[in-house]
Amino acid sequence: MAISLCMKHFFFYTPFLSISITYASLDQKPPTHLHFYFHEKYRGANATSNVVASLNRPNSTFGNIVVFDNPLRAGPEPDSSLIGWAQGTAVRCAFAEESVLAIINLVFIDGKFKGSSISVYGLVDGSGSADRTIVGGSGRFRMAKGYVLTKIVNSTAVSLVAQYDAYVWI
Fold first, then answer.
1. DSSP 8-state secondary structure symbol assigned to residue 83
2. pTM of the model
3. How far is 137 from 142, CA to CA, in rounded Å?
4. With 90 as the cut, is the pLDDT of residue 41 above it?
5. How far apart are CA 170 and CA 30, in angstroms?
């Protein structure tokens, strides 16, 4: 009898549960997709990233802390339109590989999102590709969530260019 009574309640409430789940998923807006390029110069005059703390371990960069203020550009060319800055901190966090834990604010200074920023957190491994989390933002991106996919498109002894594709839910 108790089982029968529970089953009545289960079947009675189940349609309402499925209707509310369906309604919530239909309410989600598609993400805003942003495509741009991160330009970093880590050696030489006018470097945009610098090691500010090091454990000075032989043959290892483990524990190094880097701060950066890298330009964000519309294209991979160094003279393409400046759209913002990637400002943040990175920590070398693995002995065996070139892993970096990065905390980045993508600050937009031109275009539709001028004056807004996206906060990104996540690990970049030695492969040159990364999938990181958007943990917030400011301006048009206040309370944002989403993810950023990156891949290196050019790397030299003094600089690096990475393609960024951000998918932002506002």
1. E
2. 0.82
3. 5
4. yes
5. 9
